[in-house]
Amino acid sequence: MSDAAAVALTFIGSLIGLVLSFSGFSKTPGSHSRSARIKYALMGYAANLPAWLLAMSANQSFIRASSGLYPGDHLGLNELAWPIIEAVIALALLSLPIKLVANTICKDDANWLQQQDPGPLMDVVNAAQIAQAAPGEPDFYGFRVVDQDASKELYGDSEGNAYHAGMKADLNAARQKGQLYGTPGIGLKNSGFATSNIKSGSKGERVLAGIIAAFNEGGLNVDAFYSLYGLNDRGQKTTADIDCVLLGIDHAGQLHAWFVDAKYYKGGKDTKYICMGDNTIARTSKAKHAFVTGPNGLVTLPTSQNMVRQAGAWRPLLDRYQISAKWVICFVPGPEGTPDVSDVRWSAVRNVVIDPNSPTSTRAEYTGIPVMSMEDLVKEIHDMDLAYTANIPIEAIQLFKNQLKH
Length: 406
What we know:
single chain; alpha/beta; 2 domains
């Protein structure tokens, strides 16, 4: 290796720093600026110094080893070993500036996003166009708060048909047809929840069961299991509760299961639930452009991790039976309709990304368990055109019957 080649290595690190700053590694203005690119070039230069020093050392070792040779002689393996080792290490160290600069760019991008991010509260305020509270009005961090949405004023009783149909549906008929197993809501009795939460949860499961039973009459073609035990990491039953499993089979013989957590929360058609940070949702009124308080006086609700844990615990059992599973949170309709949950994820994690079209150049993305309305859940299942439930293997039915809490 010549001295010129060794010296050339000093500029490779600088080139790496510049290339990375212009590539996909750089995602925000925080790493696009001229000063940032100069920093990355200098950082790459400095990080490449060890490779340069080793390359120079390998070159000098080679020169020393070959200086005493006569014409026609060749270097032996012993004389070449150390220069070769140094050269190999020098080449390996060329990855150091790549890692160092790439990590620094990622940190600079994260810092820029954090500085520009208006925060979870503004996710909700902007999405629901919530107004500032007037002097003397109830407020949530300065924004308007009401205790009821506008569903009753806007729609009257016209949106309550699905709720009343679900409450009045004959579950015994579905049970006699072999399409309903277990007792909706029974698993909440020993849950440790407050009485009001148990009452609300039981009503939600009852509405879910009634609507599924009604749509089964029209060819939805699922067997419904209510109030099942949760599992731990060893596949053993726990006191955790799974509200419902809907089991069907398609015409190709593939089993499908929807694990459903039913939610009967305050609000009608005018209510919109929106994510507000990790594991938190907020209740808003679309017409009133305001936050809406719940029975406890709060506008935010925590979202539990139960479905996330259960999805992992059930996976080995579902794989064994070759069941394709989907885990969903389902908001059932109330007397004034179903809240809008189109932008909600349960057990959500908030990530901030760059968005040139946003006033702050950023926006929040939420990942988590899908949240659906009852209407959307029924439509999704109906669109699969499942085969008649008599085609479901008895072994699969027995699997879920064994998990029932009654």
